[in-house]
Design a protein that fits this description.
The protein is of the alpha/beta class. The chain has helices at about 25-40, 45-55, 70-85, 120-125, 135-145, 160-165, 170-190, 205-215, 245-255, 260-270; strands at about 10, 15, 25, 40-45, 60-70, 90-95, 150-155, 195-200, 220-225, 235-240. Helix 8 (about 205-215) links the parallel strand 8 and strand 9.
Length: about 280
């Protein structure tokens, strides 16, 4: 069991006033970001996080805030909060699901758009009504320019190829094409030659990892529960699911995750002795 300085990587999806799966309310998200700001925590850029992993020097009170998928509510409700507190997050985009058009209003501006629940967003995606639930490239660019978000890959189509194709070689090729399309889209739209990839639904195996590395991805993000320490494998970065709970809960968890011994003991207990 390692007791090195931990770096929590937080995982969010939706920031929305409509309760649902993987959703945090704007009020609680604001409380979380305010707590970080008032307690001296630094929200790292993706590049800063990469440097930490490269050097093995983990600064105290450092945190990486991540979002998966690229929902419209990330612009409407998360962006203004990050902007308010001077915080930064990393957003893993499903690059084939982003739309075109003008930026829409965000919280605090007139005419804020309706945002769907998670189930409604998934239904919209299945029906091809992506603009109702997901970001537009103009909004992605606005957040990048404001310094509230860095953007990286969550694949191009969010497909679980292991469930779609039985043949291993064909599956590998489909995943390789998907990853190549995602990386090319990020490069074309944002000028980002991204080495960061977050697995859809957290699923990966040895073949997935091999294909991803061949595609140029060196930092692979999972849904495995744990904190980052000096010896972490960049090909298997653990994250912490953040619940829709107030600042008291959030501060308590950060007080645990930010301490070397306490985080190791807590995570070990949570995982039956297998924690990190």
């Amino acid at each position: 069991m390692s007791f090195g300085q931990p770096l929590p990587v937080l995982m969010y999806h939706h920031i929305s006033p409509k309760p649902g799966l993987v959703t945090c309310s704007p009020e609680n998200f604001r409380a979380h970001m305010q707590w970080l700001a008032e307690n001296g925590w630094k929200t790292l850029s993706t590049n800063e996080f990469t440097q930490v992993l490269a050097t093995g020097k983990v600064p105290k009170k450092s945190v990486l805030v991540t979002f998966d998928d690229g929902y419209l509510d990330n612009w409407v409700y998360a962006h203004p909060v990050l902007k308010e507190f001077g915080q930064r997050a990393t957003l893993f985009l499903i690059t084939g699901w982003m739309g075109e058009g003008a930026v829409r209003p965000y919280a605090g501006q007139p005419g804020v758009p309706e945002v769907p629940t998670h189930s409604q967003a998934m239904a919209a995606a299945a029906e091809g009504k992506l603009d109702e639930a997901f970001l537009r490239w103009s909004e992605v660019e606005a957040m990048r320019d404001a310094g509230t978000f860095d953007f990286h890959s969550h694949t191009h189509t969010h497909t679980r190829w292991d469930r779609q194709i039985a043949d291993q070689a064909e599956r590998d090729q489909a995943l390789a094409d998907d990853l190549a399309a995602s990386r090319a889209t990020l490069a074309a739209r944002l000028g980002v030659d991204s080495p960061h990839l977050c697995w859809p639904q957290g699923y990966y195996d040895a073949a997935y990892q091999r294909v991803a590395r061949a595609a140029g991805f060196t930092h692979l993000y999972t849904t495995e529960h744990g904190v980052v320490r000096r010896e972490v494998d960049p090909g298997r970065i653990p994250r912490l699911v953040i619940k829709d709970k107030p600042a008291k809960w959030f501060g308590g968890r950060m007080g645990i995750y930010g301490r070397p011994l306490l985080s190791a003991l807590y995570l070990s207990l949570k995982s039956g002795g297998k924690g990190r």
